[in-house]
Amino acid sequence: MKPAAQILSRRSALKTVTVSGATILASGVLPHIAASNAALPPVLKGKINHSVCRWCYPSIPLPDLCQAAKEIGISGIDLVGPDEWPVLQQYGLHAALPHGAGRGITEGFNDTRLHDELVASYEAMIPKVAAAGYNQLICFSGNRNGLDDEQGIKNCVAGLKRVMDTAEKYGVTLVMELLNSKVDHPDYQCDHTAWGVAVCDEIGSNHFKLLYDIYHMQIMEGNIIDTIQKYNAYIAHFHTAGVPGRNEIDSTQELNYPAIMRAIQETGFKGYVAQEFIPKRPNALASLKQAIQICDGA
């Protein structure tokens, strides 16, 4: 596994052109797979729908990651674009949260100068998502760049409302990610749950919801379980990672993931929980397998 400093970042991953499905399929199976086969987990309980973020495993070819995911009990892959969907389909995996529209994390719907471009991008991508059999598409607020929070909400609402007719027509939910602005994404505007909820309330559509990233919101506001219970109706998707460090989610960090998963279950949530930690151990897939066992629910 490469040192963390060399690992592809979320920001670069969302802007990098993906390798074509044909090229990926031509790759050989890496030794990671043999390692992942060593001790398969027991049958999963089926109370949590598991996914994993593709960008966290840049050294593992996508077919190998898909094969390992199937063996571990993961049914979805997050943050994959149209060129990668055929590979997932070959392995019977769901693109739980696709990307492919917009300008990335820092340039989003809070900038009215980008609205025409963003609307065109999302209106072109939404039918493709639906045609592939998927029902979510990630979006971002963008950085503040001096914009106050109230105006940022108004700007996001104005831009996103232009896309809602298309989202509703095709049955695709736009999912805005909550990210921390203290450590990983300085100046990002959708950095508190209440801010994202305010955008949801103003839009007033079941086809716009939030990606509640547990790692990011622990850094920004804590109180994870109470927030999930209070705002569960606004949450379409979850991401995980260990705090501090964004690494493995076991006892080396401060979050109690079994308790958080029980809280998610108790809300009746039926969407996906995706692992988005950066493995720091040599056997990245063993860490992923452990995370799925930790998050498999009560």
Describe the structure.
The chain has 298 residues and is of the alpha/beta class. Helix content is 40%, strand content 12%. It has 12 helices and 8 strands. The chain has helices at residues 10-15, 21-25, 31-36, 62-72, 85-90, 115-131, 149-170, 193-203, 214-220, 224-231, 257-266, 284-294; strands at 49-53, 76-78, 94-97, 136-139, 173-177, 208-213, 235-240, 272-275. The protein has an 8-stranded parallel β-sheet with strand order 3-2-1-8-7-6-5-4. It is globular and about 45 Å long. The two termini are 31 Å apart.
Number of helices: 12
| Gyration radius over CA | 18 Å
Q: Whole-number average pLDDT?
A: 89
Number of strands: 8
Helix and strand topology:
Blueprint: H1 10-15, H2 21-25, H3 31-36, E1 49-53, H4 62-72, E2 76-78, H5 85-90, E3 94-97, H6 115-131, E4 136-139, H7 149-170, E5 173-177, H8 193-203, E6 208-213, H9 214-220, H10 224-231, E7 235-240, H11 257-266, E8 272-275, H12 284-294
Parallel strand pairs: 1-2, 1-8, 2-3, 4-5, 5-6, 6-7, 7-8
